[in-house]
Amino acid sequence: MVAIAEACASGKFPAQIALVLSDVPEAGILQNAQRFAVPFAHIAPGKYRTKLDEDAERAYIQRLSEARVDLIVLAGFMRILKGEFLRAFTDRVVNIHPSLLPAFPGLEAWKQALDHGVKVTGCTVHFVDQGIDSGPIIAQQTVPVLEGDTPETLHARIQEAERQLYPAAIGALAEGRITVKGRQTLWRPAGAG
Q: Is residue 97 among the annotated active site residues?
């Protein structure tokens, strides 16, 4: 969120953060929103551990609709979004995942990469669909797996890559430079007609 807020504040792309919502009341993202003078709120997720319950989902939809958001950018939101939420914001929800999807979807992808012995991993910005980390891929950035890497050191390097890739992808979306055709996306360079 900080990298995205800094990119917005710098004028690197025509976007602003309209609202920050969190399902965790003490989440650092809420303090960061306050620091950047962005409206923020906590909305309890409800009775389920891995997804929003129906009341929470309606509350999220209402708050985001009232804020008139064009794009929903997930950052550390560890709940599966489905159904009514995705219908309310069709093709307007993006996420970043700490692997080169479709490899290693789900939780702790950096540990999965180490366990599988891959030499390269990375991060992926993708549209959110009804599956888990299965939406059309917008952008990817590679991160080498180094000899002696631990889950913590690899995850830290992936997070560095995420802080570069996510704002760049959001900027391209805000500028209308991303086109989706089925599962394929086309990212036109800045300044291209």
A: yes
